[in-house]
Each structure stands twice: as structure tokens, then as C-alpha cells.
Design brief:
Elements lengths: L6 E3 L5 E3 L14 E7 L5 E2 L3 E6 L2 E4 L5 H4 L2 E5 L3 E2 L4 E10 L11 E4 L6 E2 L9 E2 L1 E5 L5 E3 L6 E2 L2
Parallel strand pairs: 3-6
Antiparallel strand pairs: 1-2, 3-9, 4-8, 5-6, 5-7, 7-9, 9-14, 10-11, 10-13, 12-15, 13-14
């Protein structure tokens, strides 16, 4: 078997061989984002949980009923999204600075409070249990939305 040497395209557009002392400085892949229009009655802020209200529109999600709990789009990534404006929403992976005083590993669920996360599993009749992810540390969150919500009866 022949030796295989990695090749890269230099900043000048030339194909060059990577030397043994060289390293790759590549951009890190960012979060999985989608865009949608805020069709809620108020502005959305970073960390707000949103559900799909209609074609390419979102609103503040809550666990009180399936109509406002599913399908979950993700968590608001933009600092602020005004009513009628388009914003970015993160669907998966790590998100920084949306928790306060959390304990690493703690699971979070969709709350009965619109747009909020909670560590308490909803138990009220007709509530929808959606596991949203877990705390990475005191402030950071890992989004991992359970795609099979439980509807309480």
C-alpha cells in the first residue's frame, strides 16, 4: 500500500501537501439553525422555546396542550426577534448562556410557562411532556429534543 499524504488548497488556490509539522486550522461547524417568522403576541428572546404555528411561523411553546407544544422547532438563537420579524432558532446541540445556576446533567422539559424550560416533568391532565435536553454546566444547555412527546390524560 502506498503512503497517502493529505493535500489542501492553499489561500492562493494552489494544491499543496501538508507537512509533518503543519496543522489544519478549519472553522468549527456551527449550531443547527433554522429561520422562521415570529407569529406570537410578543417578542422572542434567546432561550425561548418555540413551536411551529404555521408555514414558516413560530410562537412560544408551552406544555399545556398539544396545540402549543408540538411540533417543537427549537430554542430561540437570536438575541431578540420582534413580532413579525424573522429570527434564528437552534434545533440541536450545545447552546451557551441560556440557563442560570443549573447543575450539569440535569434534564429539562418544556414548561407550562410559555417559552420556558423546567426541570419538573409536567403532570397536569392534557399536558404534553417534551424532554428538551440537559444542562452542560451552570449556564449552558445541550438541545436534544425528544421527538415522541407524551400527552397526559
Amino acid at each position: 500500500m502506498a503512503n497517502v499524504k493529505p493535500l489542501v488548497i492553499s489561500t492562493t488556490g494552489n494544491i499543496t501537501e501538508i507537512g509533518s509539522a503543519d496543522f489544519l486550522n478549519a472553522p468549527v461547524v456551527g449550531p443547527v439553525l433554522t429561520t422562521a417568522l415570529n407569529d406570537d403576541v410578543g417578542a422572542l428572546t434567546k432561550g425561548d422555546v418555540v413551536y411551529r404555528k404555521g408555514t414558516n411561523t413560530v410562537g412560544k411553546a408551552d406544555s399545556d396542550a398539544i396545540a402549543t407544544a408540538w411540533p417543537i422547532v427549537g430554542i430561540t438563537y437570536s438575541a431578540t426577534v420582534a413580532v413579525g420579524a424573522t429570527g434564528y432558532f437552534q434545533m440541536d446541540g450545545p447552546m451557551t448562556a441560556i440557563l442560570s445556576g443549573a447543575t450539569a446533567g440535569t434534564l429539562y422539559f418544556l414548561s407550562g410557562t410559555p417559552a420556558a424550560l423546567t426541570t419538573t416533568v409536567p403532570t397536569a391532565a392534557s399536558s404534553v411532556v417534551v424532554q428538551m435536553g440537559h444542562a452542560i454546566n451552570a449556564t449552558d444547555f445541550f438541545i436534544s429534543i425528544n421527538q415522541a412527546p407524551l400527552i397526559r390524560t
